[in-house]
Amino acid sequence: MLEFKNIKCESVDKEFSEFEYCYLKSVNRTYKYISAKVKLLQLPVTNAKVNGALYQRLNGYKPFLYNITVDCCKFIKNQKYSPIASFFFDTFKGFSNINHSCPFNHDIILDKLTAESVYHRFTNVLPFPEGDYMLQLNWFTSGLNRIIFKVFVSLKN
User: Fold this and answer.
1) Which domain of life is it from (predicted)?
2) pTM value?
3) Among 62, 48, 153, which Cα is nearest to 108's?
4) What's the structural domain count of the chain?
C-alpha cells in the first residue's frame, strides 16, 4: 500500500511562476490524490530542465538511488533518452498536460494523481523496499531554479 503523506509546492521565482493551487485531497481512508496548477508568467518556455531526486527517510531524508537531471524538451521528443526519467514520467503523464515538447505556452497542470497509480509503478514495475520517501523535482529554465515540487509518500508492501 502506498499513501501520500504530504505535498509541497514552491515557486522560487515569483516573477516567472506562481502556484494557483497545490494540494493533497483525502476523499476517504483509502482514496487520496494530489493536484497542482502552476501558472507560467513568462511565456513561451523554450528550454526547461528538471532535476529529480528520490530520498528515503532514515533519521532525516537521505538520498536514495536516483538523482538525475534531464532536458525536458529533448526528453519529451524521445523518452528513450533517459529510462529512469521515463519511469517517473510514466507515473504521472496520464494525469498531466505535459504531453508535448517545447515551447510551453500554457499553465502546467497535474490533475488527481492517485496513490493507486503510483503504487503500481513502485511495486510491480520496479520494486522498492518499504519505507517513507520524498521525490523532489527542481524545475529550471535559462539555468535558474524556478520551481521546487516535493511529494512525500509511505510505502508498505
Assistant:
1) Eukaryota
2) 0.90
3) 48
4) 1
In sequence order, the β-bridge partners of residue 136 are 53, 150
Under DSSP, is residue 124 helix (H, G, I), strand (E, B) or coil?
helix
Of residues 104, 120, 115, 6, the one with CA closest to residue 61: 6
Is 155 in contact with 131 (CB distance < 8 Å)?
yes
Ordered per-residue pLDDT tens for the chain, 157 residues = 888 999 999 999 999 999 999 999 998 877 899 999 999 999 999 899 999 999 999 989 999 888 999 999 898 888 887 888 888 888 888 999 988 888 889 999 999 999 888 887 777 767 788 899 999 999 999 999 999 999 999 988 7
Which three cell numbers, joined as nine digits, stand for 16?
Answer: 516567472
